[in-house]
């Protein structure tokens, strides 16, 4: 008869040829290939310090008749290490999801069991079809100060391990990034870019649970981002872009009151409007080119200098600069 | 008094809701700061679990999305009236315990108490607009405290402030629901809908 046998990497494995006596004459094969007699102790197959490459089908045949006497599928693997578990609500106030993964592969099948406790109640975590390592929970209560306790246990044939996370309802709220970010030049305005976006579609009720947004932008040629926090609306006009330079722009979202910022949206690129170049004579073109270079890269107006990282405004818009940006802007001009 | 559904009443409701949302936001921010000060001055562990205490209104709500506007207002009003009395009690205990030794904590408590009082009045105004009028404050005040030791009183205070911080978030949500046009003012997606 055939069955599956799980063994740990590094273990010594002894396989018996079914009910055959120790001194019976037998032949063992691994995936159809004869195994050398040096691995046999009588009719027993001895595999020392097994590794992953030794996984496969092992068969034992009676010496003279070649009758199949025993067959097993050896799976070499590892017991599970402590899994990594995270929970997040991207659809507040409907519910939250938990997802997990193993920090190292086990090479054998694993099963996962998750328990979610709130107050004294065990809540149902409905497993997602895809991805498989995720389940979602519907909130039965809102605004609770009692923490949620989620325990994930991973089990395989060689052992089990578990991890527990506890969190507040508010702490795990993190929306998905804003969608459909669009940035366009503004006609006849060489320093402006109009940016618009939409609430993430997974956020169920932006009217009752409004989001605020964080926009960052920089010219491709510079590394330093500029940041703007917006407490309402899904559009913003950048008014201090460098004329003629291509910009990269991203937006993030956060519930107005609780939780953390989303990841940054997909980046969009845009270049402010520039005037059409006039037709000139050769001599005039040289002069024009030189003067156009010096005038198109005008430094932005001086604004408040603030510390790196102090990017969150209050109420309306806050813009941060670093002094080096101005100097870098002039430096780039002459590269 | 204008009818509850007249245009002027609707405008007044939206105005009161907008101001109430801002009040709740400021209140929450100040309560969170007060929590940090309270934990530090009272020598508590910020992550300490505090069991539900009798008389402290619990913000947690089941089927929150199904509540009517009037239910929201009544629950909020009952809560903030209770918090007003609880904070007054905490302030008195703090003054008795520490005297003038910790004026900063006392000032912070007093400031939050003032905001809670203002918010309570705000809720009463909204209820008057609903042609209901606020219920009378019968049996006002927190239940008389059993004789609690100093540490138990500190933990109770921690529980009061934590629950108040939750309420401030809930109140902003409640008022947004109330500000929505349409009857009932509470048509958020049901929690029972599949995600």
From TrEMBL, chain A:
TM annotation in the entry: 310-333
Record key words, sorted: Cell membrane, Disulfide bond, Glycoprotein, GPI-anchor, Immunoglobulin domain, Lipoprotein, Membrane, Receptor, Repeat, Signal, Transmembrane, Transmembrane helix
A Pfam entry, by short name: fn3
Topology class, membrane: Lipid-anchor; GPI-anchor
CDD domains for this protein: FN3
Subcellular location: Cell membrane
One GO term (biological process): positive regulation of cell population proliferation
Sequence ranges assigned to domain Fibronectin type-III in this UniProt record: 177-277
Gene Ontology molecular function: any one: interleukin-11 binding
Residues in coiled coil: none
UniProt domain Ig-like: residue ranges: 10-60
Main location: membrane
InterPro entries xrefs: FN3_dom (IPR003961), FN3_sf (IPR036116), Hematopoietin_rcpt_L_F3_CS (IPR003530), Ig-like_dom (IPR007110), Ig-like_dom_sf (IPR036179), Ig-like_fold (IPR013783), Ig_sub2 (IPR003598), Type-I_Cytokine_Rcpt (IPR050379)
This protein's GO CC annotations: ciliary neurotrophic factor receptor complex; CNTFR-CLCF1 complex; external side of plasma membrane
Family affiliation: Belongs to the type I cytokine receptor family. Type 3 subfamily.
Designated name of the protein: Ciliary neurotrophic factor receptor subunit alpha
Organism encoding this protein: Nyctibius grandis
UniProtKB/TrEMBL annotation, chain B:
Top-rank taxon, per record: Eukaryota
Keyword Lyase attached: no
Pfam families according to UniProt: CNTF
Gene Ontology annotations for the cellular component aspect, listed alphabetically: axon; cytoplasm; extracellular space
SUPFAM superfamilies in UniProt: 4-helical cytokines
Region (Disordered): 176-195
GO biological process terms on file: astrocyte activation; ciliary neurotrophic factor-mediated signaling pathway; negative regulation of neuron apoptotic process; positive regulation of axon regeneration
Keywords recorded for this protein, A-Z: Cytoplasm, Developmental protein, Differentiation, Growth factor, Neurogenesis
Residue ranges the record marks as coiled coil: none
One example GO MF annotation: cytokine activity
Family: Belongs to the CNTF family.
Protein's name according to its UniProt entry: Ciliary neurotrophic factor
Organism ancestry: Eukaryota, Metazoa, Chordata, Craniata, Vertebrata
């Amino acid at each position: 008869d055939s069955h599956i046998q799980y063994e740990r990497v590094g273990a010594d494995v002894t396989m018996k040829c079914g009910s055959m006596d120790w001194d019976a004459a037998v032949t063992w094969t691994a995936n159809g290939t004869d195994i050398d007699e040096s691995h046999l102790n009588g009719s027993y197959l001895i595999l020392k310090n097994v590794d992953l490459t030794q996984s496969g089908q092992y068969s034992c045949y009676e010496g003279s008749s070649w009758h199949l006497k025993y067959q097993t599928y050896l799976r070499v693997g590892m017991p599970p290490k402590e899994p990594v578990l995270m929970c997040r609500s991207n659809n507040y106030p409907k519910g939250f999801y938990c997802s997990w993964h193993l920090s190292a592969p086990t090479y054998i099948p694993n099963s996962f069991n998750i328990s979610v406790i709130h107050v004294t109640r065990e809540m149902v975590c409905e497993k997602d079809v895809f991805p498989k390592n995720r389940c979602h929970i519907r909130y039965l209560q809102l605004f609770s100060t009692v923490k949620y306790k989620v325990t994930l246990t991973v089990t395989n044939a060689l052992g089990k391990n578990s991890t527990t996370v506890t969190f507040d309802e508010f702490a795990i709220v993190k929306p998905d990034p804003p969608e459909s970010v669009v940035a366009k030049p503004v006609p006849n305005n060489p320093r402006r870019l109009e940016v618009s976006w939409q609430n993430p579609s997974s956020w169920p009720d932006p009217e009752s649970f409004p989001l605020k947004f964080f926009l960052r932008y920089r010219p491709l040629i510079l590394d330093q981002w500029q940041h703007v926090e917006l407490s309402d609306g899904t559009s913003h006009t950048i008014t201090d872009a460098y004329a003629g330079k291509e910009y990269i722009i991203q937006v993030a979202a956060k519930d107005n009151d609780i939780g953390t910022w989303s990841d940054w949206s997909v980046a969009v690129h845009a270049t402010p409007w520039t005037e059409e170049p006039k037709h000139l004579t050769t001599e005039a073109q040289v002069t024009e080119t030189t003067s156009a270079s010096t005038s198109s890269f005008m430094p932005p107006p001086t604004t408040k200098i603030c510390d790196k990282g102090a990017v969150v405004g209050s109420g309306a818009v806050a813009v941060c600069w670093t002094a080096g940006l101005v100097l870098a802007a002039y430096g780039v001009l002459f590269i | 008094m204008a009818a509850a559904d007249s245009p002027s009443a609707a405008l007044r409701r939206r105005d009161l809701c907008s101001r109430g949302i801002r009040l709740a936001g400021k209140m929450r921010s100040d309560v969170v700061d007060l929590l940090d000060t309270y934990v530090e001055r009272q020598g508590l562990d910020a992550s300490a679990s505090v069991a539900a205490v009798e008389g402290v209104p619990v913000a947690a709500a089941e089927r929150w999305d199904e509540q009517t506007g009037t239910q929201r207002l009544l629950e909020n009003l009952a809560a903030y009236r209770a918090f007003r009395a609880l904070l007054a009690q905490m302030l008195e205990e703090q003054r008795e315990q520490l005297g003038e030794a910790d004026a900063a904590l006392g000032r912070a408590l007093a400031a939050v108490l003032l905001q809670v009082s203002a918010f309570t009045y705000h809720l009463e105004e909204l209820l008057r607009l609903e042609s209901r009028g606020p219920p009378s404050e019968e049996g006002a005040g927190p239940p008389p405290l059993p004789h609690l030791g100093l540490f138990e009183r500190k933990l109770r205070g921690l529980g009061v402030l934590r629950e108040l911080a939750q309420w401030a978030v809930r109140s902003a949500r409640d008022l947004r629901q109330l500000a929505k046009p349409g009857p009932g003012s509470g048509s958020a997606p049901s929690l029972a809908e599949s995600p």
